[in-house]
Amino acid sequence: MGFCVLAKISKRTVTFWYQSDSNPYVPLKMRESNAVPLYFYVNGNDFIFGGAARERFYRNDPYAYGNYFEIVKDPAKHFSIYGHKKPVKQLFYYGVEQYLSHFLNTVLYKSDSIESYRQQFPLRFLFDDDIEDNEKSLIENLFQEAGYFNLGRIEYHHTLFNILSQKQILPNHKAILFMNGIDDVLYLNLYKNIRAEPLGSAKLVGQGADPRVKILADMIVEYVIMQNSYLSVDKGAEIAFLLPFCAALLQNISPIIKGEAELSDGNRYWFNVRERNLNDRLQYYANDGMIFAAIDDLLKANNLQADGVTILLGSEEISTAYFSDKLLKKYHHVTALQPVDVKDTMLAIFQAIANSGYKVEAKVPAAPPVLVRPPLPSPKLPPPLPPRKQSDIPKPINIPRLPEIKATPNTKNNQVKPPPLPPKKA
Question: CA separation (Å) from 168 to 162, 164, 371?
């Protein structure tokens, strides 16, 4: 049976999909979703990965862990499981392997443990734009050290650009500026052409969304805090968390925007805001110049003109008509990525994996060499003792011999005749 599991990794979540044989790829769900928040809980032999661990983390449980890519920077930080002390970076490995075990047991119906599948298990990583190169290496090394040798890194942008080129959305000869908004950070990645040869990159903190999306998120957080005065929240972090939710809200906007918003701790709160207030605040927003300056600097550094570059908006937080219209005032080639394009790209990725026979795609380091111990040196013998002097040799002592003991005769062997019996009376 051919199969593969793909994990998309960002700073906040890990999302799982799988494909088996010739079937189309599907989400790998353990509970309610295939998108798992990066929170962990370890206490004794109990290990929890995902939403339940997040709840404990926000209750300040000392055995709960969040902010994974921050805490791994401290090499002294550890956790204990099964009575063994482990570096905190291995939390990610234990969490992902929990999903791989779930896949074996519930999808492939294998009763074996994951240990017997590690070396050949086809596992692919797709890293989002917010993951740095050293963080990618950290994740890959974790699994290689654990014995996973059938690993691969998915080059997402290369496949995406090929799909868009086939649809005649991207020209073959122009450079591509891929813009992606994640957690209110705007990532700009410049590529030479559809082969995704990187030229340069930049990121802008606080600019990772359409201004209307960010203002709506701000208004929702303000409403929730006002209605729940006991809450103690990081407003900036909650605004960043709500951006995808608000982007979806603005697709079907109404004069009164209301509903339930889920904050980063997993709890849901009612909100009610007016579109008129949103538009009033939008009039005072004037940060467009920062984005224009970052784009111009990136193009200038690579000797490119705006006419020779296609700007591709890659996330729903910025793939809006309002954001596109702002960019089109200065740049002539701006297009937004559509959900069908993402789906077609994922289909192409899994098809390429299946065509490879689920074999290793990335370069995996060779097995560590077998260490041969040098032979131990033979122990040094002590120097021989000097020969004894004649005076040191003890003189023999004459001990008199004991008298010889004669064996006593064995009377049982003597031929003794018994006396005759008396005559019988008549």
Answer: 10, 6, 56
What's this model's pTM, rounded to 2 decimal places? 0.79
Do 76 and 138 lie in one domain? The reply is yes
Pick the closest to residue 176 from 162, 155, 194, 158 (CA basis). Answer: 194
Q: pLDDT, tens digit, for every residue of 312-340?
A: 999 999 998 889 998 999 999 999 999 99
Tokens linked to 41: 């809980």
What single DSSP character describes residue 409? Answer: P
**Cα–Cα distance between 80 and 224 in angstroms, integer?**
37
Is 173 contained in some domain?
A: yes
Shared-domain flag, residues 114 and 215: no
What's the CA gap between 103 and 107, in Å, rounded?
5
Distance CA 210, CA 202 (A): 18
Same domain? 273 vs 316 = no
Alpha helix (H) residue ranges in 7-154: 51-58, 68-71, 90-106, 133-145
Per-residue pLDDT, averaged over 189-201, amounts to 94
The whole-angstrom separation of Cα 333 and Cα 180 is 16
Three-class secondary structure of residue 227 per DSSP: helix
Q: How many beta carbons lie within 10 A of that of residue 26, not counting itself? A: 13
Angle at 150 between CA 147 and CA 152, to 5 degrees: 120
CB 122 within 8 A of CB 3: yes
Look at residue 154 in the predicted model and tell me its pLDDT.
95
Give dist(CA 25, CA 347) in Å, integer. Answer: 7
Q: Of 189, 178, 185, 179, which is closest to residue 205 (Cα–Cα)? A: 185
Confidence at residue 414, expressed as pLDDT on a 0 to 100 scale: 47
Cβ-proximal residues to 250 (8 Å cutoff; 6+ apart), any chain: 210, 212, 213, 216, 320
pLDDT 10s digits, 78-122: 999 888 899 999 999 999 999 999 999 999 888 888 888 899 999
**Containing domain of residue 84, as a range?**
3-154
Pairing mode of beta strands 175-182, 151-153: unpaired
